Every structure is written in C-alpha cells, then in structure tokens.
Amino acid sequence: MQYECPDMVRLFPAGSSTSKWVFIANINPGAPFGGSATEYFTGSFDGTTYTSDHTFPKFMDFGKDHYAAVTYSNLEDRQLIIPWASNWNYAKVAPTFQYRSANGLPRELGIFKYKGDYWVSSTPCKETELLLSSAEVYTEADFILTKKKKKIIKNIFSGSSYTGMVKIDFYIEANSRAKKYGFTYYNDEGEKVDFFFDRKPDKLWQKYSIINSGSFVMDRRFSGKHNFLDYGAKVWDINGREQPYFPKSKTVYLYQYQSYKYVNPFYLGTKMPLGLLNSKKTHVEIYYDRSLFEVFLDGGKLAMTNSVFPASSTNPYYNHIKFYNEKGTVKISDLKIYSLNPPSTSDTT
Prior knowledge:
Blueprint: E1 2-11, E2 20-28, E3 37-45, E4 50-52, E5 58-59, E6 67-72, E7 80-85, E8 102-103, E9 107-114, E10 117-124, E11 132-140, E12 143-145, E13 151-153, E14 165-174, E15 180-186, E16 192-198, E17 215-219, E18 234-236, E19 242-244, H1 254-258, E20 269-273, E21 281-289, E22 292-297, E23 302-307, E24 320-325, E25 330-340
Antiparallel strand pairs: 1-2, 2-3, 3-4, 3-5, 6-7, 7-8, 7-9, 9-10, 11-25, 12-25, 13-24, 14-21, 14-25, 15-16, 15-24, 16-17, 17-20, 18-19, 21-22, 22-23
C-alpha cells in the first residue's frame, strides 16, 4: 500500500465552537472496491502530534473514481477539495485519448456526528450553481412509485444543444415495505447506469460501526465500454504500444466480495451505507458529465464518484430516465433536471 497527497484540515461541526482535525490520505491499493481511494481520519492536533479518534479508516467517497484529492488554502473558513476522477486499477487503459480521465467537481468539506462518531461530508461548492442552465430545466410534480407503477421520462433534453451534462435533483421517501427502489439512466442504445436504494442490511458496514444499514448502489456494468479490462486480454496504451494487463487469477479478494456483482475492476457496482443518513426522506443530487457521475446524498453526507464510457457513436449521452420500485410505496418530490453549461473562464464569482 502506498500513500499520496497527504493533507490535514480543520473543520467545525455545525453549531459547535470545538473543531476536529481531519487527516486525509489517498491510498493505493486498499479501497473498499479495489484500487485507489481517498481515506481520512478525524482527531485532534496540538501543533506537534496528531491523535486519531479511530484506527479504522473512513472514506470520503464510496465510488471507484475519487483519488489524489487535494484541498485549497486562503478561502477564509471554507475547505474546498478537488479529486482526480479515476482509479489506478485502470487509469492507464481507460478508453480515452489525449488525457487520462478528469477532475471531479470542487467540493466543500464539512463534518457531522453519527452516534458519537465524526464523519466528513463532501458536497459541490456553491459556485457550481453557475453551471445550471435557466433555459433548459425539466421539472416534475410529486409522483408515487409502486411495483406496478413506474415513471419514465424520455428525451429529457434533445437537439444539438444537449451537451451531455446534467444535474438531477430530487427528494425520495419510502414506506417501511419498500426494500429496493431507484432509477435507471439510459440512452437509445440500451446502455444504462442503475442507481438504487437496497434496504437489506449489509454486513460490510459493520466494520464502520454502522449496524443494520442498507446500501445505496450505483451499478455501471452495462454503461458502455467495459471489456478494456478483461483479465488476460491485451490492451493498448496511449502511445499505441500493446501491453498485457492483469494475469488471469481465480483468487477472490476482499474488494471483490465487497463490490456489487464484481466481474472485473471496472465491470461492477459500488455501495455506500444508508445508515449514515438516519432519515426517511433523502435528498439526491447527481451531476452527470458525459463520462462521469458524481452522486451526493443529504448534502454530501454520502458521496460517490464513478466514471462511465458510453460506446454508442450515434447517441452516446444518457437522456432517458426510469424510476422504479419493487415493493411498497415510494414518493419522488421536487424533481428538477438541469442542463449544464460548459464552465466559462470569465466566471470569477
């Protein structure tokens, strides 16, 4: 295991004058779902010695593509951080040209308490609101989901003006009978990404002292290109030289067991613990930027960043959404879907 981009920031819980110091370490390997990730510890710092409140690391983001996160200074009482949206499991063979993945959105760090323990929140900074298009906004009144009643919205944005960049924002609330519910974002070719709440307790979260917690899952297995990571296959690097990737192996590693339907380091789903939210009504914010999804639940108490590579050459961007529910009743409220404008270099606000 190696550490990169170490950092330490001071955060104040809401309504408290007592601060906590957060030590950030980007690791590779050692992530919950394999490869690299950003982990952190909360504790105290006396100017010389840092003392952690816990020995087991926590993770700032529960996706596969949040690494080398770096904070920025001279922002008064704000703590902003920007991650690299990739993973060393496949960074060298990602099917892109001229560059190797992108940065995630700038995020503002906060800290909150759950059953006596401190956790770090991460939410898009307020300046990202400058990206929202006032001209292209889809809104929907409240609607109910049951096993027989789904909600499908096709061609959310259409025409040449659609940039493949959107923000999806809504609240979701389920009754006690609802166990699995969510939505699928897809394109005309059938490439899709599935996001769902699974309220079945997951033993994975017990190591974080989150007992009887279900999971929020993002399943990107059918999102588009994925076979660039097949074990035993050969791949091409950016200079066109053929190079072997991982050798074939039947070993089942911990991160494979912890992932959702693991096939290879890219072809899988990732999870995060719903127990941290401790609420029946959840605020969901998702930013989609062509080949990247950034998910934030309840103001960033949970965050998940995953890359995707749609394979379609005619209609590569996801532009349809289907909300579903397998049992019980689920309510979606205050749904807003914004088209995003490309960032302007003249924005100085």
